[in-house]
Here is the input.
Amino acid sequence: MAKAAQPLDGADLFADYRVTPGVSDELFDAHGQMRPVWQRFVARFARLNPQEIAARFERGNQYLRDAGVFYRQYTNDPLQEREWPLSHIPVILHESEWDQICAGLAQRADLLEAVMADLYGPGRLVSDGHLPAELVAGSRQWLRPMVGVPPRDGHYLHFLAFEIGRSPDGSWLVLGDRTQAPSGAGFALENRMATGRIFPERFPRAHIHRLAGFFGAFRTAMEGLAQGVGGHDRMAGILTPGPSNDTYYEHTYIARYLGMMLLEGEDLLVENGQAMVRTIEGPQPLGVLWRRIDAAFADPLELESNSQIGTPGLMEAVRQGNLSLVNALGSGILETRAMLAFLPKIAQVLTGQKLTLPNIATWWCGGQTERAYVQDNAARMMIGSAYACDLPFDLGATTALGGTFRGTARDSIADWLQAEGPQLVGQEAVTLSTTPAWVLYPEAELSEGRVLPRPMTVRVFAARTPQGWTFMKGGYARIGRGGDATALAMQRGGSVADVWIVSDRPVPQETLAPADRGDFRRASPGTLPARAADNLFWLGRYVERTEDAIRLIRAYHLRLAATDNPNDPRLRSLTGFLQGYGYDLDQPVPDALLERIEAARSCAGKVRDRFSTDGWAALGDLARTARAMTRTARPGDDTARAMSVLVRKITGFSGLVHENMYRFSGWRFLSFGRALERADALAALLATFADPQAPTGSLDLAVEVADSVITHQRRYRVETSRDTVIDLLALDADNPRAILFQVQSLRRLAGALPNALDNGRLAALSRALVPLESALSIADPSDITTERLVEIRAQISAISDLLAAAYLR
Amino acid sequence: MLYDIKLAIDYTYAAPSDHTRNLLRLMPLDIPGVQRVSARLLDADPRPDERRDYQDFFGNPTTSVAWHAPIEAVSLTLRARVERHPRPRLLDLSPGLAQLRADVTDVHSLGPEAPHHFLGASPRIMPDPEITAFARAQITPAMTALQAVLALGHALFTEMRFDPEATTVDTTPHEAFAARHGVCQDFTHVMIAGLRGLGIPAGYVSGFLRTFPPPGQPRLEGADAMHAWVRAWVGPENGWIEFDPTNDQPAGVDYITVAVGRDYSDVAPVRGVLRSSGGHQSQQAVDVVPLDAAG
Here is the structure.
């Protein structure tokens, strides 16, 4: 019999909330009583009218959008992102229940550590017959080079996640262990920030355990792991596969949050058994890596040889005991589905104790008895690869569910089990609990919804500290799309929710800031990886290059509108000039312009942990606007206006970056790129449009493209001449649109970079800049011939090479 | 039989690269009762900034070398003196294929000799239905595992053509088998895929073959470079046996083992050669000279 919610004030929102018989529910207990932990929340929520709810939910969504929280989609466009699917109502659990769960998971974490130590050590579980050898040897997650290599600090596992669900009888069940590179902790933080916007009141806030304490403890533990021999500080970093990974946003977020470097494989090198970070100050020793890439890809030399994201020699650094990894290479073996069939027994063998928190019932079909059992009970089984590492509900590796095949057609489950038994496992198709979710009527606004029960799983995070396992007091819930609480409903494409662990009393308000010790500690901004510097440098160059092109295209269309004659000599010379850069002016918004914008976004996407989310959003806006214009812009006035819009947007980005970015090395590389590109563009512009052979009107065009029309009028009070234009755009130390001005910026920036002096003398980069600056400072306009401009461009190009040689590799 | 072995490998890189790091598996393996190494010396020029010798998971002598400054070319030279003992004629004590499966399961070990490493997919050898079907067609239900190995090896020798130009180091067993040609690496990969398809654990052996045969016998294919052949596990009694499908014979006293593994990726003589930045060129010269007067 379905149960309706208990009547409440404004209970309409919950009027449709019916718990499915035989399914546990988070809101209501088995007797249909609302669980006490939810009561105050529901009472307040139910008082809100639909408009208030919509407004609150929108605040949460707005926060996520502003923060740039997106989920990457696997498409051909590596930067394609979709909005974060927040389910706005949190999952609420009482701290006493949570403590019980965590105690069970701590036992499980210790068990996993012991299994790991055995599989890469003596191998007794296999030799004593507790685990089939083929399950280990046949898995690509078991990394042979790790056998016999003890972890530097004595532990293989440091950061774990567990996917848990509630059974129909109300007890909790482990659905899967995440030991390779668990994701979601950063997303849990973001969910918390968003629900903070939705439910800002003192209650519930004062009673919800905070997440910061967990991260603080984990960071401290990692700093401890990073220490070298004799307690020397070494760097700690997060190793990411890069921007095309689906959880890259989380990597950048957590790197910013913890103040750790975000590194890719090519940022590292191994020298004499020590892993080092390539920085602008040369290689710096690294003590610990929080690994977010699959271990098999970490070292192309000893592991997957075709890995493009690894570091040759990383395994050697581990073998020589100079690098700690969170978690150790090879920890993915513990995620193997078939492992769940053996862990309960192994727990008893190794510890003499039963697991207090059971895992999902699993049968490895390599055994005769188990195979027969799975076959007889196929109707309530998920059957799939024994070696798969996905969670049961991800279904990626599950090919049969409830006795029928998904996708590929096969003849019969019996034949399949017979033929491929050792490669298969059966897992009980458990029913999950349901939790309140805001569900819209079809095609409705955010205000037109009601609360319905939806199935859920919770991800729990654990970190090893010197005092033992510590657990995040909160988590990351996945909410199914449909009302069905069985396996199918949890396929990819549901939503996610915050998890509140609630106390009866107000809880301590921890933050990640260091505890107040009376003294003010200013953290060093840290050193800049060479690859990040490279991307910032090129971001600066591409943005400037794009802006320059937009101004040139605008100049073309303004003249086209005025003359209506594409054969006008000035238009022809503009066309030729732009063609030299690959811009086809037959297209109002040339493809090459879109490519430049994408190149800038691609560089920016690789250093998202280093500049503001506003800047990233501004670049995205620029790209979207430009793409939309390809469909609408018509040649002439219309395109000129469109280009004016783009100029404003791109200068908006530059403004955001330059007004707000901390003046540290990263900013200097970005600015260096911008100044270098502008100096070069001005030299190129003058070489063509200030050439004595250029068509009449070219000088005005140059002044206009360089945005210096008004300045020219003020300063010279005459018509443009070659001398006035060269004076203003090449030799003026006060005009930001002059070569000299930019060369002076370059010289100042170079002087502020690390190792600007080499044994007391100027380093090569500055030695190349100083003569160029002096020459321009004392030159007359008549000295700056077209040939001299071409020469200046070659000098600028050499300066770019010198920068790259000194800092960017 | 006592051999003096000389090997020279030269790499030239199109674009010099800093922090080049290589893993070398070039030094002959000591195998009690089969092969004894009395001297082995591996040199690299230019002299690497780092060098460390160790044994990998399968027990192969492995040398890790690295150069910190950019290098344009590397010369590797190996000199070794190795004695290969004749193996007694094998008495076939291997089970049928159904029993072999049970025998594999009964091995409770993850050690390097355990058959479990050599049954499923490995980095360079995926299960291949076409090769498996071909392998099935070569055997009868009455055959022992050893007979099945010999039958498949012979069938592949007959079916595939030795062609040193047709394939590359990256050719997959599927491609080589589809075109029915290749070099020792391809013959070996295809045979391993076939054996695993039959449920017979099979691995890859890299090594040397004596350069000139005894008088009156033909020169064997693969003698002018490093060679490759197959090892297969045929039950607890006979254990691992070795067979050379390129020459259709068991690997006997003419063969010197360097490394064993699941496939080429485990035993590649030089790993870590840069492919990305402009490519490279390589040359290999091998001399395997018997010292015994009898030849």
About this structure: The first strand of chain B starts at residue 2 and ends at 17.
